[in-house]
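Hypothesis: this fold can be encoded by more than one sequence.
Test: take the structure tokens below, design a sequence, compare later.
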């Protein structure tokens, strides 16, 4: 969110990110779990970041990509969806919160549809 850092972001992909807050965070939040605070449905800083990203997307300065799953018990689609173009959105019916990073087909889809169109230096990604 910081301005004037010199960093320019062309694209942002998010996997099961509770952009709209998480009702689970609302239920389980305690002052001891500080990182969880940003996932509360009432988090002003998360709301401000989301709105800033959406505005930059509307202006054409940033491409947003989002993944959500109806099978995810932790971050439900209503809390992770952003109003982005359908080609920038993946909705799965068979990934839970833990398995989505281990699915090779999903990883290949993200690389092909999200990373490659937005990255010139692909040699960095080949390991």
């Amino acid at each position: 969110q910081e301005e004037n850092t010199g960093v320019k972001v062309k694209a942002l992909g998010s996997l099961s990110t509770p952009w709209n807050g998480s009702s689970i965070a609302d239920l389980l939040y305690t002052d001891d779990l500080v990182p969880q605070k940003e996932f509360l449905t009432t988090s002003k800083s998360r709301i401000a970041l989301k709105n800033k990203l959406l505005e930059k997307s509307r202006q054409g300065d940033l491409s947003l990509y989002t993944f959500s799953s109806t099978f995810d018990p932790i971050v439900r689609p209503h809390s992770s969806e952003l109003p982005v173009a359908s080609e920038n959105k993946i909705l799965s019916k068979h990934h839970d919160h833990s398995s989505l990073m281990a699915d090779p087909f999903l990883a290949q889809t993200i690389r092909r549809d999200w990373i490659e169109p937005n990255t010139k230096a692909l040699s960095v990604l080949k390991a």
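The chain has a mean pLDDT of 83. Helices lie at 23-28, 44-58, 77-80, 104-118.
Hypothesis status: open.
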